Amino acid sequence: MSHIESSWKFAEELVTESDAIAEARQHSLEVGVDAVSPAVGAQLAVLTAASSAKSIIEIGTGVGVSGLWLLTGAPEATLTTIDKEIDHQQLARDAYLRAGVPVNRVRLIAGRASDVLPRMNENSYDVVFIDADAASVIEYVEHGLRLARPGGVVLVAHALWNGRVANPAARDATTTGYRTLLTEVSTSPAVISSMSTAGDGLLSLVKR
């Protein structure tokens, strides 16, 4: 194991998850949902806390792991979360209840993000978190930047796509999409961007 790999492992194992998040993570494993890693979750909490987020929208509910981390940093925020898998959303709803999140703090929308997002109000969210259909990541980021208020944060999970983005030999459509996204935002005057290697990569954008 290289020193970089051992550092990643150390960073992941350093994070202590609450009982509610640990239980949700176990459920995610059982149903085959690839939840954000503990280190990425901790970063989500730090970013929502640092931005004093009051309104969060999540594209890709999963079973509630990422939502719980987002609300850990912003316990007074309202979370709107979108997913096409109704069964997964029910598990997420149960996870929020077990964690003591008031029901009026979470709005679950069942449907395809590509259908739902055009109906959401622009410039309305402090934080947009994207962890859904990887093939549509560029479309979702475009929507995310529209929905985020000026100074708001757009976060993209799995931005290194299983290590394939850094491999020039990987040229499938999804990997190329992530690579194109990262290249474009790195030079865009519309955002301030940062790429974290935690977990499978977390791209952070601040809308200018």
Q: What is the CA-based Rg, rounded?
A: 16 Å
Helix and strand run: HHHEHEHEHEHEHEE
Strands of the widest sheet, in order across it, are: 3-2-1-4-5-7-6
Strand content: 15-25%
Q: Tell me the CATH architecture.
A: 3-Layer(aba) Sandwich
Structural class by helix and strand composition: alpha/beta
Output the number of helix runs: 8
Provide the CATH top-level class.
Alpha Beta
Helix percentage: 40-55%
| Multimeric organization | single chain
Fill in the CATH topology. Rossmann fold
Q: Can you tell me the residue ranges where pLDDT is under 50 for at least 5 consecutive residues?
A: none
Q: Tell me, briefly, the overall form.
A: globular
Tell me the count of domains: 1
Classified in CATH, the superfamily is: Vaccinia Virus protein VP39
- Average pLDDT reading: 96
Distance between the termini: 40 Å
Main sheet specs: 7 strands, mixed
E-strand count: 7
Tell me what you see in this structure.
The chain has 8 helices and 7 strands; from the N terminus they run H-H-H-E-H-E-H-E-H-E-H-E-H-E-E. It has a single domain, classed as Vaccinia Virus protein VP39 (Rossmann fold, 3-Layer(aba) Sandwich), CATH 3.40.50. 43% of the residues lie in helices and 21% in strands. The protein has helices at 3-14, 19-31, 38-50, 65-73, 86-98, 113-116, 137-147, 173-187; strands spanning 55-59, 78-83, 106-110, 125-130, 148-157, 191-196, 202-207. The longest helix has 15 residues, at 173-187. Helix 2 runs antiparallel to helix 5 (86-98). With 208 residues, the chain is α/β, with parallel strands linked by helices. A 7-stranded mixed β-sheet has the order 3-2-1-4-5-7-6, sandwiched between helices.
